[in-house]
């Protein structure tokens, strides 16, 4: 259970709620959702989405043209906010290009480019010439792009565990640094909208035709979104929030439904608190997975009601961003860091009548209050669970 607390010396996010931490904070304060009616693709299904505007008109810089696709454009947009590229370059100068690991989470990588290639096969049945770039058709496209974009040459890992992907990158990075394989790590996650995701979730009858309503008694399902987020982790730094702990588990219960008692989620939560040497009463804020699907919210609400005191504030922020799949972990980790830094604990957009499983911890309205410790929950398809613990100095 031993782990090393790491400083988060830089972080950023880009989602439908805004580009960067300042824009995201403003959206949270103003209770302004980034969701809009679905207009993605030639035959949009009836739902709402968290779309990042302008990606179609923003190709990658010429030196990265080989990686150009929607997912990597979104990654570049995220890297370019909050001075993150500069922070990464400073870390490269401090430690060396081969000592800064890159650990990226994604669930679909650049599959949208592969969809387009199959839709535009040439008369010989081959990909069109402009899409004959193998790197954009692999699960490691994102990690390869980020490593090259930042000029790094060390370990580069892709984590693909559905919706927990970019939460588990923090755990992977901590292990790499603790065992001496890296001195610092760039962690993050990116997932972009594509037909496979939208139609796939629709076929599972998990997509809502209205704006998602996490933990509401009349919730109808999820709204999908796209996002990018990144964080820089260092073991010796004078400033920044702390990654205090993490917990990981696997339900192995069902491909798309959580364990009915939340067994795996509870195991991940317990391990995270043990690593951080904290108790439930020490937690000020929890950013819940809160997808607005029937079973996830029911199970998650019960865990919180059973284990945490009434003074803990908990919420889902997917009403601002949509469910960003493999990017959800990093986006919601970043929102947890915003909550700690700015003493704003977000409520839950669109929550009107809480489900009976909800305790008083789950908030509808924002709470302006100092917070020292926060948790971020990420629970993926197939029962892949991760809980992260963040803290700030007194």
Question: Please, could you describe this protein's structure?
Answer:
This is Beta-ketoacyl-[acyl-carrier-protein] synthase II. Belongs to the thiolase-like superfamily. Beta-ketoacyl-ACP synthases family. The chain has 394 residues and is an alpha/beta fold. The protein has one domain (6-391): Thiolase/Chalcone synthase (Peroxisomal Thiolase, Chain A, domain 1, 3-Layer(aba) Sandwich), CATH 3.40.47. Helix content is 30%, strand content 21%. It has eleven helices and 16 strands. It has helices at residues 21-30, 70-79, 84-95, 111-119, 141-149, 165-178, 195-203, 263-276, 294-307, 318-321, 328-342, and strands at 6-15, 18-19, 36-37, 48-50, 100-105, 156-159, 184-191, 224-225, 227-234, 241-250, 285-287, 313-315, 344-345, 367-368, 373-380, 384-391. Strands 1, 2, 5, 6, 7, 9, 10, 11, 12, 15 and 16 form an eleven-stranded mixed sheet that branches. Strands 3-4-8 form a three-stranded mixed sheet, with no helix packed on it. A two-stranded antiparallel ribbon has the order 13-14. A hairpin with a 3-residue loop joins strand 15 (373-380) and strand 16 (384-391). The longest helix has 15 residues, at 328-342. It is globular, with a radius of gyration of 20 Å.
